[in-house]
């Protein structure tokens, strides 16, 4: 007899509360951090617009057609508890706990409670998941609903499957990849695998129109959202620049191949995930452990193959679309890698707890130790350093240049002009440029717009010892992934014709304020946000391309 919805969800409440308490304790030092990168650039402004106006379409930032479910959750929490970063962080930690609870139930159903507990523990400690747990992004919400949907799917609860997949798609549109992959696999698999092999390799040996209808029906709410978005804005998938950056500009065979390598690395190797992957393959060389004369239970082969199809769909699709190769986009499938690895190690290694404990330590080290290749600050606690540097510099600008015009780039352009982001108390006038490359700084130095100071900072991670630093790779990532090199503060000061009055470093990250030596008349836009806009900060799917590994 299939479990009912209440029989499935209610026992999960205690698990949710335990997980939420644990991750809240781990994240206590991070709760008061102001908003970072895409939080500041899109998600928080969009949710704030919903809070203040009730509009599902943001108007203080360009809409990129992301479904509004996660933003509605934030707006509801702000309505009840107040609009501030700690409320936002705790609200997102609740989403992370919800995702981990769904992962626990999925892993327990496919294996056992021991494997489920270890899987959830390692997932919560994995640097990318840990860093994203308190950030106001939509990827963890989509991952959580996907885990619950997969749990319902493997329990053969069709309407629960449809509901959870529909909510996943309303959290982030790319979540439709999972039900589409399952539907395609159910249709194709019986035609690919025939005869006696069907019982061994396939969960369903025949095509069921009802199951296919349930999976495809989960797409209907997202289609309704896109129709509404088109009715309100005239665009289906966001503004034209957004679509160009994330679809039109990504369709090149060499770029797709490079992106595929990056996605595979994110799923199996990024930030010490390689340690677990290698241990999994090493464990496969050992015989399974036995209990009462029987091999320990493993995840059924048809289930493994089905989940592999979902993982393959994400890897393939997000190698073709999406301008930024961000590791958080793979959060719906990386925990499946961890689940496979934990199940394999538990089943075959007698000292499995020590092995997985070693992996847990490696993951925690990954919170603080940056890899020897370029990666997104948001993949570990490097984002905390970024925010801390910008808070200090913004306070310096507020104290010394409150009535002046400051040259800078996104994200600082938003940090200085939008007090609700938590960096300044009053808006500062800004002149915005694309970044701090030689071309951008030379253009600013020779341009017609006046400014009194410049706030320059590292926009990407560039390790002192970069394993991928060679001329060919630099050319490729410049051509396909928007790479540019930020000039250090002394060089930037010489080009702009000023001198450094403030400078701070944290590891490879830096930020500096440059005072102009030449006499200038300050620009005087009545509203700081009327300064020349940083288009790239608004046109992206989520942000400027942070690339991993080194992309």
What does this structure look like?
The termini are far apart. Helix 5 packs parallel to helix 8. This protein has 2 domains: 365 residues, no CATH class; 161 residues, no CATH class. Helix content is 57%, strand content 7%. The chain is globular. The protein is of the alpha/beta class and 551 residues long. The C terminus is likely disordered. The strands form 2 sheets. A 5-stranded mixed beta sheet has the order 4-3-5-7-6. A two-stranded antiparallel ribbon has the order 1-2. Strand 1 and strand 2 form a beta hairpin. The chain contains 25 helices and 7 strands.
Could you tell me the mean pLDDT? 90
**Annotation field: number of helices:** 25
| Main β sheet profile | 5 strands, mixed
Structural class comes to: alpha/beta
Tell me the overall shape. Answer: globular
Low-confidence stretches: 522-551
What is the total number of structural domains? 2
Proportion of β residues?
Answer: 5-15%
**Cα gyration radius (Å):** 24 Å
State the share of residues found in helices, binned by percent. Answer: 55-70%
Extended strand count: 7
Q: What strand line-up does the widest sheet have? A: 4-3-5-7-6
For the terminal residues, how far apart are their CA atoms?
A: 50 Å
